Task: inverse folding
């Protein structure tokens, strides 16, 4: 029957004669069966496109039922329904798990103080969460200065220095043979001299004798005291180069940050700053995770295992980064972030999917705020649509601080993705993987029949009983389960008898012989059920093979709905094109059809 569902101008011829039989629309269908994701209880949701179906009930990839990879016939039928002209489809997902709570993917840390869960069960729930830090601009700034301010710490890089930089009366300790001298050091302006801070320097002498900063200390000072360089000798000339570089971490564009802010420092290649840190070299790591220290003048590298091979915290003076300024990709502070959700695949699957199925934006590491992790990824979202489409929930135990949340996230990140290697063109990726999700076993007839539960929501066919609009029901996945097929068709029959005005589309099993199809159809002699034979060959929507064989119910329901809308319920759904079908899996000639039709096939 024509449907006027949106504003517009329509012309229809209307007869004013009394109607002996009132037509009943067949444009609204329902599908019951297993899917990759989505709710398993409560009122089934109506979807109006295949894109909306995938947002709630998952993609078209295979299911893993009872440990075996099987075609996702429910999703394939939904796609065929919409391709064929269907407009409204109710979906009731059925599952078979040993107990409630099975099949949920999760990841947690520190005795569940921070816990991520997939909202619904299923292999697809083995999500990969990718964090994108909003404070992603490079906050490290370096600039050369001609003369540092009094007390300022800068990085000095000088070559060809003469003995004019040497303090008085230390010729015996630091003889003229060591000049000209090259110096790379952290220095602090102190009147007419520059103090080598903590003797963190690299000295290259003319006589190639190894030298330490303390050897340049003032006469009379004990060994280990900080060395000095006289300002009078730090003057550039034809043979002398002198460069002072100031380094600092600037405030982000969207506000300042507190001391102890979590940060990441990324280099373009291997860098060794041992001479300026006094700590062991961190090896080939090109990404270092840590915090900003006092007045943001220090970068403290975590020694807690977040940086592979670093067993103790390393304090890097920010000014020391001037020594490798050309080798630094970025220095960012981590506060607010976005999360992109990548779908999960079966453990034995060769699928690689980096697509994003959902995005969470502007999440704060601070607990208790309106955009905190537990608020944005709420266990029970306020809006019904978010309850259906938001794929992940997060719980944070009371009392967990923002700093602790950052630490937990750091520990959950995939170590290999954090450090892609020196020759990778990619920067570090912040990935957290959920695991433990599964599709369960093949749903049985009792799962399709469903249970009535006013508290947690009904399931299966029972969940469809409160929806009056539905006129067609189908169970395409049942035809792929020979052990339960007949029993599931019985559940379809019981549902249609109970609801009185519904028609059930029944699929034959794949590869049935003509006699088997006739015998199968004779098991239920009911005008409310329509058996279709054989299966249909279609192009593989997964892109794995050229073609696959699928049950015909999704295509038939689409033809029903499209015929109803375009022509009217009085028009039989015959001689209509089946959109998406390439051919039948088995050719049926006229004489075979004459055998099937009298049996209602």
Result:
């Amino acid at each position: 029957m024509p449907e006027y569902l949106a504003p517009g101008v329509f012309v229809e011829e209307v007869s004013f004669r009394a109607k002996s039989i009132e037509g009943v629309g067949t444009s609204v269908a329902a599908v019951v069966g297993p899917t990759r994701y989505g709710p398993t209880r409560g009122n089934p949701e109506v979807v109006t496109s295949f894109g909306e179906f995938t947002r709630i009930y998952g993609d078209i990839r295979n299911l893993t039922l009872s440990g075996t990879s099987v075609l996702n016939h429910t999703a394939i039928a939904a796609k065929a329904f919409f391709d064929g002209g269907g407009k409204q489809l109710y979906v009731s997902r059925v599952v078979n798990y040993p107990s409630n709570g099975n099949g949920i993917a999760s990841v947690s840390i520190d005795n569940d103080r921070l816990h991520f869960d997939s909202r619904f069960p299923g292999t697809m729930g083995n999500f990969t969460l990718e964090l994108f830090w909003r404070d992603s601009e490079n906050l490290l700034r370096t600039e050369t200065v001609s003369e540092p301010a009094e007390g300022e710490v800068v990085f000095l890089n000088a070559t060809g220095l003469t003995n004019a930089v040497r303090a008085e009366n230390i010729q015996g300790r630091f003889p003229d043979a060591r000049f000209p001298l090259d110096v790379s050091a952290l220095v602090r302006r102190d009147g007419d001299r520059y103090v080598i801070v903590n003797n963190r320097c690299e000295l290259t002498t003319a006589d190639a004798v190894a030298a330490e900063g303390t050897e340049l200390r003032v006469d009379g000072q004990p060994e280990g005291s900080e060395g000095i360089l006289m300002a009078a000798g730090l003057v550039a000339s034809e043979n002398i180069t002198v460069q002072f570089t100031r380094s600092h971490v600037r405030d982000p564009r969207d506000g300042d940050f507190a001391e102890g802010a979590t940060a990441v420092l990324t280099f373009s290649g291997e860098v060794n700053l041992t001479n300026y840190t006094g700590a062991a070299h961190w090896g080939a790591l090109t990404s270092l995770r840590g915090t900003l220290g006092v007045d943001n003048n220090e970068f403290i590298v975590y020694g807690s295992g977040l940086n592979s091979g670093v067993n103790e915290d390393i304090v890097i003076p920010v000014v020391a980064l001037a020594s490798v300024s050309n080798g630094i990709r970025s220095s960012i502070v981590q506060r607010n972030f976005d999360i992109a959700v990548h779908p999960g695949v079966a453990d034995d699957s060769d699928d690689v999917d980096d697509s994003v199925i959902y995005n969470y934006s502007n999440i704060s590491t601070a607990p208790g705020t309106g955009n905190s992790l537990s608020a944005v990824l709420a266990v029970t979202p306020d809006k019904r649509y978010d309850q259906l489409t938001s794929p992940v929930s997060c719980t944070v135990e009371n009392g967990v601080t923002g700093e602790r949340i950052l630490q937990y996230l750091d520990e959950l990140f995939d170590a290999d993705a954090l450090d892609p290697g020196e020759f990778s063109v990619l920067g570090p990726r912040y990935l957290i993987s959920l695991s433990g999700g599964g599709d369960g076993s093949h749903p049985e007839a009792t799962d399709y029949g469903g249970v009535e539960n006013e508290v947690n929501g009904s399931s299966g066919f029972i969940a469809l009983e409160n929806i009056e609009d539905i006129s067609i029901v189908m169970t395409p996945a049942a035809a792929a389960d020979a052990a339960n097929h007949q029993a599931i068709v019985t559940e379809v029959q019981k549902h249609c008898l109970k609801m009185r005005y519904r028609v059930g589309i029944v699929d034959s099993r794949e590869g049935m012989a003509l006699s088997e199809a006739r015998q199968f159809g004779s098991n239920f002699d009911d005008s409310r059920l329509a058996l279709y034979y054989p299966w249909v060959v279609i192009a593989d929507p997964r892109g794995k093979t050229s073609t696959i064989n699928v049950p015909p119910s999704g295509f038939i329901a689409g033809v029903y709905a499209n015929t109803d809308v375009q022509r009217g319920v009085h028009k039989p759904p015959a001689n209509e094109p089946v959109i998406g079908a390439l051919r039948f899996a088995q050719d049926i000639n006229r004489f075979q059809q004459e055998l099937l039709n009298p049996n209602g096939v």
In short: The chain has twelve helices and 29 strands.
